[in-house]
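Rotation project, supervised by the postdoc (A.L.). Task for the rotation student: set up a whole-complex structure prediction and record inputs and outputs verbatim in this book. Inputs entered:
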Amino acid sequence: MTLNGWLQIILVLGLVLVSVRPLGLYMARVFEGQKTFLSPVLSPLEHGFYVLAGVKPDKEQGWLSYTLAMIVFSLAGFASLYAILRLQAYLPWNPQGFDNLPPDLAFNTAISFLTNTNWQAYSGETTMSNGSAMLGLTVHNFLSAATGIALALAVTRAFARASASTLGNFWVDVTRATLYVLLPISILLALVFVFTGSPQTLLGSVDATTLEGAKQTIALGPVASEEAIKQFGTNGGGFFNTNSAHPFENASALANYLQIWSMIVLSTALLITFGKMVGSERQGWALVSVVGVFVIVGIGAVYAAEAWGNPILNALGVDPTLGNMEGKEIRFGEAMTAMFAVVTTGLSCGAVNAMHDSLMPLGGMVTLFMIQLGEVLPGGVGSGLYGLIVFAILAVFIAGLMVGRTPEFLGKKIEAREIKLAMLAVLILPLSMLSFSAVAAVLPSVVATLGNAGPHGLTEILYAYSSATGNNGSAFAGLNANTPWWNTTLAIAMVLGRFAYVVPVMAIAGSIVTKKRASASAGTFPTDRSLFVGLLVGVILIVGGLQFFPALALGPIVEHVLMLSSKTF
Amino acid sequence: MSLSNMSHDAKPMKLLDGGILATAAIDAFKKLNPRELARNPVIFVTEVVAALVTLLWAKDLANGSGTPVFSGQIAAWLWFTVLFATFAEAIAEGRGKAQAASLRATRSDAEAKLLTDGTAKGYPGKAWKTISALNLKVGDIVLVEPGDLIPSDGEIIEGVASVNESAITGESAPVIREAGGDRSAVTGGTTVLSDWIKVRITAAPGSTFIDRMIALVEGAERQKTPNELALSVLLAGLTLIFLIAVVTLYGLAEYSNTALSVVVLVALLVTLIPTTIGGLLSAIGIAGMDRLIRFNVLATSGRAVEAAGDVDTLLLDKTGTITFGNRMASEFIPVEGVTPRSLAETVLMSSLADQTPEGRSIVALARSEYGLIEPDLTGKQAEIIPFAAQTRMSGIDVDGRSIRKGAVDQVLRFVGLESASAPSDFRASVDRISRSGGTPLAVAENGRLMGLIHLKDVVKPGIKERFAALRAMGIKTVMITGDNPLTAAAIATEAGVDDFLAEATPEDKLRFIRKEQTGGRLVAMCGDGTNDAPALAQADVGVAMQTGTQAAREAGNMVDLDSDPTKLIEIVEIGKQLLMTRGSLTTFSIANDVAKYFAILPALFIVTYPELGALNVMHLASPQSAILSAVIFNALIIIALIPLALRGVRYRPVGAAALLGRNLAIYGVGGLIVPFIGIKAIDLLVAALHLV
Amino acid sequence: MLTHLRPALVLLALFTVLTGVIYPLLITAIAQATMPYQANGSLIVSKGTVLGSTLIGQNFTDAKYFQPRPSATNTPDPKDATKTIDAPYNAANSSGSNLGPTSQALVDRVKAAIEAKRAAGVSGPVPADAVLTSASGLDPDISPENALSQVPTVAKARGLDQDKLRALVESQIQTRLMGIIGEPHVNVLKLNLALDGLS
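Outputs recorded:
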């Protein structure tokens, strides 16, 4: 680890911290229906959409109707995306003439983009036409992020309102999220990414003649426009196979800064939006602090593990100064690779600027663990916020008991119903992540698809199901995931992670919104102070993480100790 | 209870007593019935896997295969884990049962004298027939005469009697019960000592006060309270999560060429699921109720006890709670030309025959402040002038002295002065006393104005500190008084309450409670009169005084058998303590898991990955002893924590954040560390005894 | 459910047009108009021939050139489409090796690469990026240490003065932006182009 490395990390974190407040407060205005500086341009467009879609923007929905709207919208999105992928050969913008996707891959990919996972069982530049990338993937990068934001807003309103019954209007929230938040910033980001070097063309590729006279086909496409929303919407599905490690997606150290900033800023700003809308910006900052603790400790752990280098290779004569460079790019360096890896897994982004499969055992474990903790650090756009609130509810419950008061969070009493639903949601994660892994680990046909043997192979399996369930989308990419088994089971895991999680969460929102707000007193445990931050960190670790310890022991932890004794597989 | 001792002591009861322990040990086995245990998912799961391991052990024994010595011990300790949990519950219940037994002994299965004509007035003579108390119907009117047990709960419609209520309150001094007013309720099972009363029965057999009390202390109708329910859900969820983690570990280990035996997986599961809090949860709840009962407070539901912990606003009647019931003389203020001593001598004389509390306090002040002794009136021609509503004065005529004391305007008129022409120092003193919330009494002798007695509402000593403590707990205290706002404000300041409701009518009280509740605050109050009933019912925690009316007792959700309104404060603390004990033990239980991982995981994989021995930070002797030690620790910790569960975590009146910090440090950090030490110690023992 | 159908379908259609067609085309139009160099892939064109992209690494095998990092990219085997064969710097199919730290294949590969370096006369610790594959398989850069360690080999192959060559390499080192951002690196294609210009 170097001082300059930490300086860079601090620089990006600082950039994030100064931008989350304005963005968070802007979003609070947008979703409270107030005028913003973009309203003169966007308001007519917005209302035009409502008229065409038959949406009455003032008619609010209860939790069930809101959730149902989200599910119908997702189903429609799935159908359209599946159709596009299955028919891409007949659709426009297919300069390379790529074939239609097979059913299992199309199914997996449609689910993947719909759930904001962006798991890619395929290699982008050899599978996906520009048309599919634009009409299908880019659209769902916007809409899955907007859906996440909408759900988070519904949960936010549950705490912001007292003795109410409705949580907002799903269609309005999705429309506003797309028009006022995602689209304007994506336009700016896309142009900045072009400036740093990302191509933006409708051409499929260009042929070059190298200095040694060989032919090199260079894949191109509308990269920047997809890149912007891929990062900003924490989607993570790359235009190219190697995602943000590809020089066209992430051309320079500066581009890398913006990539990290753009993927973490929206999820973090939503925490401020939450605070603002529930009437306590401090509460938002407390949640930001929780995220900060994990992210900074995580970065430190990955940075330390990677900068140390691989002792087995170092023993062969490799210079350890640069650290473990397998699967990493020179222009980013260890510090900014570690930061990218932790941020993308703490978020449910899943973009990668290094191959996580080649991370050191403990470095890889941290990224895996960040996902397993439930994608709340700060998690996907929207999904991170509501996931964090689920943990906050559990933390408040335990804290409330310990101070001798019926627990309340932001004045709302937390009772058996909320705990039941919160546990139901939290349960989904180990159920999907561990159960699928345990079955896959004993199937010889699945083990055959692994890219590495020994404990590292087990980690590949764990990572795949954790990533899918957490709607992350990054991979220990050595495993060949484009098989019917993987395509099907991972799709199920993605659906469970998104929908089986969010339905109980919305039910919590539906129950919370009806409660009256208890007033705070000295006997109420304050949830915007450092003690709560510490407690929430503990609850996330214990309720969210303790159950994964045996699995981690058999994967990365044992790989680490084996590596120390120079065992290879 | 002595007035100076403001905090209340519970009736002493040994935490664990031999008889209760013996009964509890037997009950612990009875409670193994899976149908009953299913209410407690954590312990139920433990029982199921204990049975499973027992079967495997039997199979090992029969086939002569496997490691029966090891699996047998694991099975045994799993059963102990379940038994310790049921034992904890049995102990907690045992204490209630002992109390119930003594209550049941006094329950009235006596006979009742059912009046043939309930409407006739006056002593009915023999106009009644004997029926069994069990056949009484609501609305029946019975006669109760000296020596009779009152057959059921009811209301006196005629007569007055002294009643021994020791059966329910434990207090042997008789109390007066009379028709009309706030002391008309009688309780079945109590005994009339003198005089006769006609009682209209208000409770059906089986649902009398004593019946409910027995049911409560026995925990027969115990339902999970809301917070307990929520916690159970959390624990069940954690159990499921760890069940998933352990079951899937089988597959993950298979990938790593490790065949895990069911016995060790079960050991891992049981040590990870929150058996500590799961085993103690119901004991904590029962013990909380029990603590309340030992404070002589009966809660009609556990929900009420929990609500007490949540109270934000405490409504307290001024009289009797914040101040002593009566005004007391605090100073004598002579007018110019009268020496303090001669004024004191005069007022002493005036109050000699005055047996009101105020009168007695004047005598006491004259004696203590001026060293006067009471003159002997025997043999003297003395005429006592009692207080009369018309004159609003009292006094004495003796030895040619005519002394009067009373309301200022009356005494001035008595001495022939207009209030404007009274001496200016006198008027100033009257003003000062009024402003301070006190009552001035003027004194005159033989037509001459002598001075003033300052009668003061005396705030109970120590009450201010208690209110400060409540404030630290986040509870707002509100004083209810019929006084005018000026007086009320003065007393409120002196007592240190946060707010007051002056000139309060019952409707005002009700309105105030509703307002607080609309603001999201929980309100507790106590009351005894019939006109308190609506407010008691409206309050989240309504404590009715045992001496109060039937209506009040029905409306509240707690009854204080000692009829001591200051007990509300303890009730709140008990409620908080109940929740805190649950929360702290939950934290402890979950924090334990970390050490258990370090004990068991390296042991599970030692064959395939000896390198994982690096996780064996406790340097446990062997894989089997590591697993066994963790299981033993897991069982013993339940036993070790039973006293804490019964006694409750200590409550301190500090802010929530400080309280949480403290409990996290003790039970969170402690929960991380203790098992490391415990498991290591047990492992040393297991190895030394060659148990595996 | 049915009441939600119309908004779902209509909004999906509207957003597909807005974010799937208008948005990317708008960005394309602006990018092509204002930043055509980047928008078309930062290509180096010499006399009408595309020599490559400054952002995409090229394969160099000739000792006359500075060698890039090893690349793990591949291409479908022309003999059997279900298999792949190694194809370093295949810019149509980016890929990392995805070998884990305890992979025997990784150890074997690195051992061979180090032996090759030793054969080429490199002594002492071998710069990590000289033997470890990049994430994209298309990394255009190498570390300054790696570039400098190749100076003797290239000088010998080209018959150039080592000091002159070292100076060329040093002139090609891209330092950190503002002294903080990024890591020092050398773009291999640019270095080799400059090398060709030098000769």
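Student's summary: Residues 1-7 of chain B have pLDDT under 50 and may be disordered.
Supervisor addendum: DSSP finds 22 helices and 21 strands in chain B.
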